[in-house]
């Protein structure tokens, strides 16, 4: 019987790596990738426990999380696309002010 | 055994994520993300949530990745240098070898587990689906609406 | 009784309010009306209270009335209240009577002064504080009014503040009194911390609860306060300089009332002092030393008011001797009679100054050099001065005889021959200086003196009436002895003839000596100054004490200046100035947070979240 600590380690590492994306990368798209990583980490954890206990509700929640994450990724990326279309750079060192 | 395989897939996801962090281009990061998503889907399969694994591949690795790739290709091809240093070589080799190891493990476990304390619960998918469209139906509808409205945001504003 | 007590405060307060808010801007030259009315009301009230107490209508001769609860913390309570007993009623009677007369005098004296209104406001404020001091029922309340009297003294000594000497004198008076106030305050603190109460009745009832050391400390500290206010030896330096103030001020405050506050404090604390005979002996010795020294200096001064000032110091010393020998009645009796005749003497001096003011060029005081042979031009003043001088010397049947005699009897009763002889010497000395002044100023033309101008004249009606009234009181106050004894609950005074003769002999000797030095040898006073300038300088300096205190004060000032220069300029000022730079620097560093660096913000979010998660994990 493998202890659940390993699962926590894995999902935790995925989460931290996603957070590292946010902190270290300058491009906004990279930040979106980081967000996706974080969401997947949490999802992994939920699915592990739900599947082990045979809890269908947990799996349903995991699916809803996937769908919500997809919607969020759509919105984020469309914002970035709008930025790119208006010839603005989608990078944090260029985008320092809320309004110009 | 299944649990170990699950952990292996999870470890693979971590490896691909680490790889993604050290990529120099956005494109590389996006591909590594794809790897992460597929590993996670595999993990879901091995955990017994096969429906969810399929959905992960369909929605995440399919639709979201496509959108990501479109966005990546729309951004100017600038070489990004997030920080100095190249990823360690062993990370790249690990990423290459891992899928093979997982494939092996998966093939070994195609059938039901033998003597493993952890069993796949039969009919889990049916239960999930009946929940999603039964008790959680409003949620499912709401999320679907959310995705629809979100996709509208891609439309360009008429000047 | 209660209405009388109410009048005691209501009248002066309303007079002050009227004087400040109404008369100051409407009719400043009529400010004296509400003041005089208030004085008369207070006098009537206090005399009525005296009569009530004397006739025995008040049980135990003590009437108390708590008025206001000032501070309250658990079992610790500070109340303000009134206490009228034989002691306070008697002194209050004298104070209010003399104050009324001097208020009237001041109307005439200050008539041409620019700041007539201000003078009367300050003067009446002093009156209010003095009344409050006399009827206080606890030490703390007395201290409050004690300070008020000190403040009034400062304001009035420095009344003509354009003069540098007046300002300096006012500061000297205030600071010297402050030292005494420190002692008083410490005594109050000691009483509060050991007994938890400062009310006279409670303190005197619980004297046995105090450890002996505390009793000694309290008594000593109270005497320190009294010594400053009543100008006893180490702290008397301010009184001669206080003559810079107008003559009514000198007459009222520095002769009859304020300086007697110290003696009054000692009299009030008599039950406490009787427990510590060591402190009583010290009080007697200090009083005696002060008396002798002041009398010696008084006999050599040329300035009219200064002689009278030193005379006051000497007489106060005599009162302290009485206290020191446990003779409460003698001290209070002499306080009352001294109030009458000293005020009279000062008012006469004021008349002289007023008459000579053209030759004085506006100086507030006159010297014997300017006077000489005034008796012809100012007969009434001369007569009054003569009565005052006789009273001071202790010639029967004038008032001073009875009170001084009582003090001498008390001294004799202690059995100390040295003390007795020295007290007789003081009595002789008093006669010497006052009659010297009389002879030099009023009788005989001397070449060194300028003499009165042709049109020197008697003062007006308003100034004459108080003088005459005080002359009558000085003469007749001897009869107050028995009623006073009844009010104080002391034994009725009786005359021991041997002591009376000794006193009379001393006084007569003094008068003869003065006559010889001033009349038989008219220029003696100037000759010895030329022959012995060193001696003159020493006497002028109060035997060296004035320059000593000035040096001490100078040292303290220099030390504080050094402190300010070194520490303040080098450490404190740069520190306070650097605070602005610190604020600016902090602001500059904080603006870095709002640079717009998204990655940094995210990093801080991650750090914060992980710290929070770690804390939560640790706690659970």
Please name the defining characteristics of this protein.
heterotrimer; A: 100 residues; mainly alpha; Helix Hairpins; 76% helix; C: 620 residues; two-stranded antiparallel sheet; 4% strand
Could you walk me through the main structural features you see in this protein, from its secondary elements to its overall organization?
The complex is a heterotrimer of chains A (100), B (159) and C (620). Chain A is mainly alpha-helical. Chain A has one domain: Helix Hairpins (Orthogonal Bundle). In chain A, 76% of the residues lie in helices and 0% in strands. Chain A starts with a helix and ends in a 15-residue tail after the last helix. The relative contact order of chain A is 0.13. The model of chain A has no long low-confidence stretch (mean pLDDT 84). Chain B has two domains: 2-112, no CATH class; 121-159. Chain B contains six helices and no strands. Chain B is mostly helical and 159 residues long. In chain B, helix 1 (2-21) runs antiparallel to helix 2 and helix 1 packs antiparallel against helix 4 (89-108). Chain B is flat. Chain C has a domain at 283-532. Chain C has helices at residues 2-26, 32-54, 86-109, 116-134, 139-157, 164-195, 200-205, 212-229, 238-241, 247-256, 260-268, 270-274, 277-298, 304-324, 328-355, 357-360, 374-377, 379-393, 399-413, 417-442, 461-476, 481-488, 497-520, 524-531, 533-540, 545-591, 598-619, and strands at 62-73, 76-85. In chain C, helix 3 packs antiparallel against helix 10, helix 3 (86-109) packs antiparallel against helix 21 (461-476) and helix 14 (304-324) packs across helix 19 (399-413). Classes of the chains: A mainly alpha (100), B mainly alpha (159), C mainly alpha (620). Chains in contact: A-B, A-C. The interface between A and B is large, with 58 and 65 residues.
Describe the main β-sheet of chain B briefly: none
> What fraction of the residues of chain C are assigned to beta strands by DSSP?
under 5%
Which parts of chain C are unreliable, with pLDDT below 50 for 5 consecutive residues or more?
A: none
User: What structural category characterises the helix and strand content of chain B?
Assistant: mainly alpha
How many domains would you count in the coordinates of chain B? 2
What's the oligomerization state?
heterotrimer
Instruction: Report the helical percentage of chain C.
Output: over 70%
Structural classification of chain C: mainly alpha
Q: Which whole number gives the mean pLDDT of chain C?
A: 85
| Percent of residues in beta strands of chain B | under 5%
Largest inter-chain contact set = A-B, 58 and 65 residues
Shape of chain B: flat
The residue-averaged pLDDT of chain B reads 78
Number of β-strand runs of chain C: 2
């Amino acid at each position: 019987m493998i202890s659940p600590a390993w699962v926590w380690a894995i999902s935790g590492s995925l989460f931290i790596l996603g957070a590292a994306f946010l902190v270290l990368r300058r491009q906004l798209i990279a930040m979106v990738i980081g967000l996706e990583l974080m969401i997947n980490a949490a999802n992994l954890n939920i699915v592990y426990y739900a599947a082990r206990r045979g809890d269908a509700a947990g799996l349903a929640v995991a699916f809803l999380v996937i769908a919500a994450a997809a919607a969020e990724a759509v919105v984020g990326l469309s914002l970035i696309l709008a930025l790119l279309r208006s010839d603005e750079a989608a990078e944090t060192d260029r985008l320092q002010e809320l309004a110009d | 055994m299944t649990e170990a395989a699950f952990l292996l897939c999870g470890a693979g996801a971590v490896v691909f994520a680490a790889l993604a962090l050290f990529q120099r281009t956005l494109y590389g990061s996006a591909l590594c993300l794809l790897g992460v998503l597929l590993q996670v889907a595999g993990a879901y399969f091995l955990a017994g949530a096969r429906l969810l694994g399929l959905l992960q591949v369909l929605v995440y690795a399919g639709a979201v990745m496509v959108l990501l790739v479109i966005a990546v290709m729309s951004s100017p091809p600038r070489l990004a240098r997030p920080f100095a240093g190249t990823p360690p070589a062993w990370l790249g080799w690990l990423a290459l070898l891992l899928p093979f190891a997982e494939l092996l493990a998966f093939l070994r476990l195609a059938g039901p587990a033998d003597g493993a304390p952890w069993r796949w619960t039969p009919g889990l998918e049916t239960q999930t689906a009946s929940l999603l469209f039964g008790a959680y139906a409003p949620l499912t509808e709401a999320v679907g609406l959310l995705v629809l409205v979100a996709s509208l945001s891609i439309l360009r504003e008429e000047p | 009784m209660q209405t009388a007590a109410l009048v005691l405060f209501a009248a002066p307060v309303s007079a002050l309010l009227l004087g400040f808010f109404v008369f100051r801007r409407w009719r400043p030259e009529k400010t004296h009306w509400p003041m005089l009315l208030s004085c008369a009301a207070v006098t009537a009230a206090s005399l009525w209270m005296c009569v009530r107490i004397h006739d025995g209508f008040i049980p135990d001769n003590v009437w108390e009335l708590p008025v206001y609860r000032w501070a309250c913390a658990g079992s610790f309570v500070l109340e303000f209240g009134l206490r009228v007993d034989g002691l306070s009623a008697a002194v209050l009677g004298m104070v209010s009577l003399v104050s009324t007369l001097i208020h009237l005098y001041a109307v005439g004296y200050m008539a041409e002064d620019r700041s007539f209104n201000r003078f009367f406001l300050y003067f009446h404020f002093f009156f209010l504080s003095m009344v409050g001091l006399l009827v206080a029922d606890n030490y703390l309340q007395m201290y409050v009014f004690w300070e008020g009297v000190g403040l009034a003294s400062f304001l009035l000594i420095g009344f003509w503040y354009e003069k540098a000497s007046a300002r300096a004198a006012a500061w000297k008076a205030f600071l010297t009194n402050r030292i005494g106030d420190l002692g008083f305050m410490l005594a109050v603190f000691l009483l509060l911390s050991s007994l938890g109460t400062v009310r006279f009745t409670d303190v005197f009832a619980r004297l046995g609860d105090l450890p002996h050391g505390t009793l000694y400390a309290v008594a000593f500290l109270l005497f320190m306060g009294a010594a400053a206010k009543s100008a006893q030896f180490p702290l008397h330096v301010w009184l001669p300089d206080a003559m810079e103030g107008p003559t009514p001020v000198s007459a009222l405050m520095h002769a009859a009332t304020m300086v007697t506050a110290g003696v009054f404090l000692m009299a009030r604390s008599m039950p406490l002092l009787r427990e510590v005979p060591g402190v009583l002996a010290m009080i007697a010795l200090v009083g005696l030393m002060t008396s002798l020294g002041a009398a010696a200096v008084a006999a050599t001064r040329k300035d009219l008011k200064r002689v009278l000032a030193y005379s006051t110091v000497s007489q106060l010393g005599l009162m302290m001797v009485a206290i020191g020998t446990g003779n409460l009645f003698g001290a209070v009796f002499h306080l009352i009679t001294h109030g009458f005749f000293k005020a009279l003497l000062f008012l006469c001096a004021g008349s002289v100054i007023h008459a000579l003011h053209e030759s004085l060029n506006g100086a507030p005081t006159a010297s014997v050099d300017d006077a000489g042979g005034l008796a012809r031009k100012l007969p009434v003043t001369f007569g009054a001065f003569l009565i005052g001088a006789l009273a001071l010397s202790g010639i029967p049947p004038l008032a001073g005889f009875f009170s001084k005699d009582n003090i001498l009897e008390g001294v004799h009763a202690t059995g100390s021959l040295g003390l007795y002889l020295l007290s007789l010497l003081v009595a002789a000395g008093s006669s010497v200086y006052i009659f010297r002044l009389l002879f030099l100023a009023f009788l005989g033309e001397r070449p060194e003196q300028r003499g009165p101008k042709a049109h020197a004249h008697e003062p007006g009606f308003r100034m004459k009436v108080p003088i005459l009234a005080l002359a009558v009181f000085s003469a007749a106050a001897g009869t107050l002895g028995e009623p006073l004894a009844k009010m104080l609950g002391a034994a009725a005074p009786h005359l021991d003839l041997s002591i009376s003769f000794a006193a009379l002999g001393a006084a007569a000797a003094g008068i003869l000596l003065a006559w010889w030095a001033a009349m038989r040898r008219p220029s003696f006073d100037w000759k010895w100054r030329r022959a012995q300038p060193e001696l003159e300088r020493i006497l002028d300096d109060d035997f060296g004490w004035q320059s000593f205190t000035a040096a001490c004060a100078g040292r303290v000032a220099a030390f504080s200046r050094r402190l300010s220069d070194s520490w303040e300029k080098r450490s404190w000022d740069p520190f306070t100035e650097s605070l602005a730079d610190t604020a600016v620097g902090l602001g500059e560093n904080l603006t870095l947070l709002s640079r717009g660096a998204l990655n940094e913000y995210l990093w801080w979010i991650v750090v914060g979240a992980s710290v929070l998660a770690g804390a939560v994990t640790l706690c659970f």
